[in-house]
Specification:
Elements lengths: L2 H23 L9 H10 L9 H7 L4 H34 L6 H34 L4 H17 L5 H31 L11
Length: about 210
C-alpha cells in the first residue's frame, strides 16, 4: 500500500475513531459534578468535529468537479455550524455551570442546538451525496460502506457522540468510509491487472 493511500484511510477514519473514544467518557447530563469535564471535553474536540466533513469530500474529489464543490461547501457549512454547537452547548454551558450560572445554560443550549442542527443537515447531505456517488462508481462493492456511513450520519444527528448509540454512529462512519475507499480502488486494481503484459515462459511472478 502506498503511503498516500494509507494517509487517505487514516484521514477518513481517525476523526470518527477519536470521537468514538471520547464519546465513551462523555457525561450523559451536565451537572455540577460533570461541568468541568464537560467543558474541557468540548475544548478538546473543538478541532476534531470539523474533520468529519473531510471524509465525504475526500471520497468525491477528483471524480467530478461539481460534486467536489457541492460536497466541499456542505462540509464547510457543517464544520462552521457544528462548531457553534460545540462552543455554545459544550464549552459555554460547561463554563456557566462551573461558575454557578446554571440558569443561563438553557439559553446557550437552545442556541447551540438550533445552529448545530443546520450543521447536521449539511453533514447528512454531504454523506448521502458521497455515498450515492460511490454506489454509482463502484456499484455493489460500495453498498456496505454506503449503508454504514448513512446510518452513522443519522445516528450522529440524533445522538451526537453520546454512549452507546453516538459511539456506534462514529464507528459506522469510520468503517464505512474505509469500506467505500476500498470499493472505489477495486476497479482501479482490476484495470491495472488487465492492462499488465502477460507473463512469458520462465518469468517469475511477484
Amino acid at each position: 500500500m502506498k503511503a498516500r493511500t494509507a494517509i487517505l484511510y487514516v484521514a477518513v477514519a481517525v476523526p470518527s475513531l477519536a470521537l468514538a473514544a471520547v464519546g465513551v467518557t462523555h457525561p450523559m447530563h451536565l451537572t455540577d459534578a460533570s461541568a468541568e469535564y464537560w467543558r474541557n471535553l468540548h475544548i478538546g474536540t473543538l478541532v476534531v468535529f470539523p474533520l468529519l466533513g473531510f471524509a465525504p469530500w475526500l471520497v468525491v474529489r477528483g471524480h467530478n468537479l461539481v460534486l467536489s464543490w457541492v460536497v466541499g461547501v456542505l462540509a464547510f457549512l457543517y464544520g462552521a455550524l457544528y462548531t457553534a454547537l460545540d462552543v455554545l452547548a459544550g464549552i459555554g454551558a460547561g463554563g456557566l455551570k462551573l461558575d454557578h450560572f446554571g440558569s443561563a445554560t438553557s439559553t446557550v443550549f437552545g442556541l447551540g442546538n438550533a445552529i448545530g442542527t443546520l450543521g447536521n443537515f449539511a453533514f447528512i447531505a454531504a454523506v448521502v451525496i458521497a455515498a450515492a456517488s460511490a454506489l454509482l462508481w463502484a456499484r455493489s462493492a460500495a453498498v456496505p460502506g454506503a449503508l454504514l456511513v448513512i446510518v452513522g450520519s443519522l445516528l450522529f444527528y440524533d445522538n451526537h457522540i453520546y454512549f452507546p448509540v453516538g459511539v456506534i454512529g462514529q464507528l459506522c462512519l469510520a468503517v464505512g468510509w474505509v469500506a467505500i475507499l476500498l470499493a472505489l480502488r477495486r476497479p482501479l486494481r482490476q484495470v491495472s491487472d488487465t492492462s499488465a503484459p502477460p507473463a512469458t515462459a520462465g518469468s517469475v511472478r511477484a
